[in-house]
Write the structure tokens for this entry.
Amino acid sequence: MFAGELQKQKAVFAAADVAALFIAFSAALMLHDPGGAMEVRLLRTSPDLLILSALLLAAMWLAVFRACELYRMRNGGLKEFEAIVRGSTIAALLTVLAGFLAHLDVSRLTMVVAYALATPAVVAVRAVARWSIRRFYASPENAVPLLLIGFNRVGRYLCDSILDQLTPYEIVGFLDDGPPGCQYRGYPVLGPVEKLGEIARLFPGLEAAVAMPDSPREREQEVVALCERHDVRWWLVPWVSNHAPNGLRFDMLGVIPLISVRGSNIGGLNFAIKRAFDLLAASVLLALSAPVLLLGALAIRIFDGRPILFRQIRIGARGRPFAMLKLRTMRASADDAAHRDYVRRWIRNGAAASQAESPLFKLGNDNRITPVGRILRRFSIDELPQLLNVIRGEMSLIGPRPALPYEIELYQPWHRRRLDAIPGITGLWQVSGRNRLSFDEMVRLDVQYLNNWSLGADLRILMRTLPVLLRGEGV
């Protein structure tokens, strides 16, 4: 029921966003439509074409809002407001671009007014939707009393999650076999589990969340049987929740539930979407950056001689090696002993080998780097040939940084999770902390990226990478 309600809420907020955008665009036409020209063109347009255009426009705005994670945010606040501003800005720019490509003659001032009204309209209509949902859930006919069985870390986490979401559940309290008298966020421990029948008589329609993952299986079965005896609908937190730091994934095969550890979200159609985006974006970026790439190659040839390209063996998805391409920035005879020592200390110590070394994986004041190489590295021009690796399918634009063979020898088993996907030119950790991150923190960010991948997340990381490059911090 909980997951189903959240899906319905997403639909409500999507409808609210469409209504808000309709209000914003209609108000913009009312406030600024010189001579009623736009209104006349709309009235002359075929109704079918007009409806189709409106649906496509609404779908585009909703897709952008979804990419900005606005349908995970339903409680308001500054974070939601920032996401609305960001989503409205991106969607407005795409709308202008679509109008230009479709040769639509739309007043620029009208579009500016519509954009200015879109954010406050979405904020206001979402607030109304949120208030309406809360009022609906709060009515006695719709509110669901909930009992949390287990006063432990998992039970308290459930309490936090339910209180912080829009749900129809009203928490009654906790039941626990431990000593009574404790409370959490104002909800007391009402007594041992055997009091369930007494509480069920006081609260018709009671539901119970059984959060006892550390208890013996026999005890969990007793609690479930007690719920069944008193006609209490129950949910059960499985014991495997304590052994899955990255979360769990639930599937159904017929009527049999299957539980597995949450893994990479880049698979199946998601992989196809990511690969298509990589091919398109890498091809465009390679074409746009070709003059800079040629100038960099020419500078290396004139000042440092050959070779121009540096090929380095890296470890890709599932441990497959490949030759990563870069413009050469070091002397041709440079030894990698210093870098091996740096990587060894970084991984084993759990922190950057030197806080002064910047950026990550690039040693500061390294006398192996040529003068031209320092300039190329500062603006990550040396990384541009990796776009060819992306086109060949060996790398992705976004993903975990490709590992060196001698790194893998130092990995703990859980570190290998970062090898579950195609490595990237840039990634979540590069825009989250760079050389200030320990190796373990970098791996956790890589795993987080893989588990939560979406095309919107890739776009956000790309947008966050650009300022880093413009500041000359490298990637």
Summary: The mean pLDDT is 83. Residues 19 and 458 are 28 Å apart (CA to CA). The chain has three domains: 2-138, 144-243, 269-470. Residues 2-138 form one domain.
